[in-house]
Amino acid sequence: MTTYITTPIYYVNAQPHLGHAYTTIVADTYSRFNRICGDDVRFQTGTDEHGDKIAEAAEKENVEPKEYADRISGMFRDTWPLLQITPDNFIRTTDEEHIAVVQAILQKVYDKGDIYFDEYSGLYCRGCERFLTEKELVDGNCPDHQQPPQEIAEQNYFFRMSKYQQQLIDHINANPDFVTPERYRNEVLSFLSEPLEDLCISRPKSRLTWGIELPFDDTFVTYVWFDALINYLTGLGYPDDEKFKKYWPVAEHVIAKDILKPHAIYWPTMLLSMEVPLYKKLHVHGYWNVDDTKMSKSIGNVVRPKELVAEYGVDTLRYFTLREMSFGLDSSFSSEAIVARKNSDLANDLGNLFSRSLAMLKKYCDGVVPEPGAEEESDILLRETAEKMLPVYRESMSEFKFHTGLRSVWELVSYANKYIVTNEPWALAKSPDSKKRLETVLYNLTECLRLLSLVVKPVMPETAAKMVTALGIEADDPSVSLLDIGGKWNVLKPGTTMRAVEPLFPRVDVKKQTDKESQQPKKQKKKKEKSVPVDTEGLITFEQFKDVELRVAEIVAAEKVKKSDRLLKLTVNAPEERTIVAGIAEYYSPDDIIGMQVLIVANLKPAKLMGIPSQGMVLAAKTETDGEERLVLATVSGRVKTGSKVA
Ligand code: MSP
């Protein structure tokens, strides 16, 4: 199989931030995942260097646009290795080959009669570098740049986009995966339900010179989007190179929702006019927000990936972004959130499993993987958890549901930690009679680590490499590099000898972190808290609150309640086993929540729901995403002892 994955080419008017890093991490992870599936993969990123924005930024710094573009493009190029991002091609729109291809395409489309000259007046947003329709404005402003667009009237060249509207609608209807997730496909179909206007594809040189000259009129340069989108073809040596023939039929683009319209409407209609087959898929994600606002240079709330790598480590950043964001929806960045994920999922769960298991292998088996004996119940459960995880992981990763894929991997991590507690290898080591049992347990743990090193590899390449080295396996061994061969149980060869172990994730000391933050000068002085008279109506006393017993419960089984769309029957340990019926079926499937630790009200009088006695209540936050109300289960930020009281 072949894979061609691209990111947007980033404007060189700003340095790389977390938003750019996320898209590029996604594309890199997807390439690495497809490589472990045995695919021939090509991954392309790059920089978009023409247009108003860049000319303006260069002017502000008093340098030539090319010199400016060289500098910022270099920053993008240099950032990717720090994030373990390894593209096969880094394209720049100022590359000679790209300029030649753009001009050849313009000529072809012009000769075909799909480009005409006309007078136009419209509302132009410099930030978006395109004309906006009245409908797109919010309170008279561009919704992305929060500034009013400029009224511009001039003569220009236009691309007959409207000519291809119906063909595009038919294509989207016939190919449901053309734009994913579905919400964005619906958004595109909704744009297309109104008549499309033709696209202005030139800028008069009297207004802008920094662009690719039109081959049929040297008094104009090409509109930056008509130039930029073509990068996806030039990077493959379009039209004659073998790479184009091999990779274009499987082209997949990753973008955020800000540039949906150029990618889902301009680009496919351009391809239709050029008579080049349409790309295979467009994957659209949401925004990383800081304090509920999209991160952007103009707003001044940017988070720099370089700084995050220095503070938390590259794999933590990659894992955090992929685990935290549901692809397609917005997510919020905070240092608390990244520390919580690092300390809990990485240091506590995966890191501890790794160091404990290998310390025991060293202590009890001299670091040599033993031959396992007969399987007992807990061994079967561990194997079955791994076998259940693999197809979920594979499907989720190939469908860009990285958070679901990682959640399923962490179910195995969590079960493996439990497996240690259940089997108590340290107790087995005390008696020679239980030697074989001890060896079986240690074999299963090391086998589990081998499998984990393989499935975390696309997301955390450094961690995977450390795990593989410590396990004594060669990095290119198929058992740790190919999913078809390694994605099974009992693959690790007994006799494999472990090497020295490096800790995977040193914990972030939350106290130190807080102290450090508190030493930093605060931008705004905290207002002195005044004591204000309190209106106590509707409030409860501490005594009343004390009567409510909140506990952490672990969901061990879940199923849909028959004849109900809303209810799930949960079996939880808190720490004793009990049944709770919860109205969350519209938001969670049973498989999603098994293994989760949730908060419950433990001392509620039992009640019957659909005939099922329910002993307690699960807590959830009522929230809204894109106008849809939903429930999100309340959990704890790290794994705690089941049944812990919540104070
Ligand atoms: N140059 C155009 C793209 C041309 S592609 C043919 C452009 N450049 S950009 O520098 O503005 O990059 C936009 C892209 O950067 C988004 O689509 C997304 O991939 C990434 N992100 C920028 N800010 C982001 C967030 N705050 N959150 C998530 N991704 C973001 O548009």
The main β sheet shows up as: 6 strands, parallel
The number of distinct β-strands equals: 25
Strand order in the sheet with the most strands: 3-2-1-12-13-7
CATH level 1 name of the largest domain: Alpha Beta
Number of helices: 23
CATH superfamily of the largest domain: HUPs
Strand-residue fraction? 15-25%
Silhouette:
globular
Bound molecules: 5'-O-[(L-methionyl)-sulphamoyl]adenosine
Summarize the structure in short.
Helices cover 42% and strands 20% of the residues.
Q: Key terms for this structure?
A:
single chain, 647 residues, alpha/beta, Rossmann fold, Isoleucyl-tRNA Synthetase, Domain 1, OB fold (Dihydrolipoamide Acetyltransferase, E2P), 6-stranded parallel sheet, 5-stranded antiparallel sheet, 23 helices, 42% helix, 20% strand, globular, binds 5'-O-[(L-methionyl)-sulphamoyl]adenosine
